From TrEMBL:
<keyword id="KW-0732">Signal</keyword>
<dbReference type="Pfam" id="PF07589">
    <property type="entry name" value="PEP-CTERM"/>
</dbReference>
<dbReference type="InterPro" id="IPR013424">
    <property type="entry name" value="Ice-binding_C"/>
</dbReference>
<feature type="signal peptide">
    <location>
        <begin position="1"/>
        <end position="19"/>
    </location>
</feature>
<protein>
    <submittedName>
        <fullName>PEP-CTERM sorting domain-containing protein</fullName>
    </submittedName>
</protein>
<feature type="domain" description="Ice-binding protein C-terminal">
    <location>
        <begin position="172"/>
        <end position="195"/>
    </location>
</feature>
Amino acid sequence: MLKFTLTSLMLAAALNANASVDLFEDEMGGGSSNDSFATAQNLGNLALGDVTNVLGGRHEDIPGGNTIDFYKFTVNGTGNFVLNLLTLNSDPGQDQYGRDPYIGLFDSHGVKLAFDDDAGIGYDSQLSHHATGPSTFYVGVTGYGNPSFAVNGGNANWPLYALSIDATNIAPVPEPETYALMGMGLVGLLAARRRKAAK
Ligand SMILES: [Ca+2]
Ligand SMILES: [Ca+2]
Ligand SMILES: [Ca+2]
């Protein structure tokens, strides 16, 4: 009985394994453009505990230049996730390089849900959002002065930025196999009770 319960727990834990993923912006590396919702770089699904970090660029000397950058991701549960955009300020609050980003969060139809200018370190951006269930989101990275998130616009020429999406607090909606495991555990428990009662 104990062995059976432990096996079920281990299997359930494996299904909910946490992951931290580090990626690069494709456009910055000379790959596909990410200047629209349709061409947003797909970061995949973020499950409970997942943190995805993207290193991107916004500078006239690199591919994509100072165009807007869009990313796309899905969550499969309910709860708050946090978007944090760092422009690697060496002197928080007074960036001598003039880096001042905006971050925007959009729903699957491209409707703006949230927007931030300076809630992060110095002039950097941070926002959190509550996912009410499995959903698709878009994140836009642009510069100060471009609240409409137009393709070209806003404060520009920061060499690099780091965008992190922290889904640590997303509670998963149980998937069919999880229900199946719970069912197996319950069947095992009831069977053990019956055997005990029969003795
Ligand atoms: Ca870029
Ligand atoms: Ca771009
Ligand atoms: Ca800002």
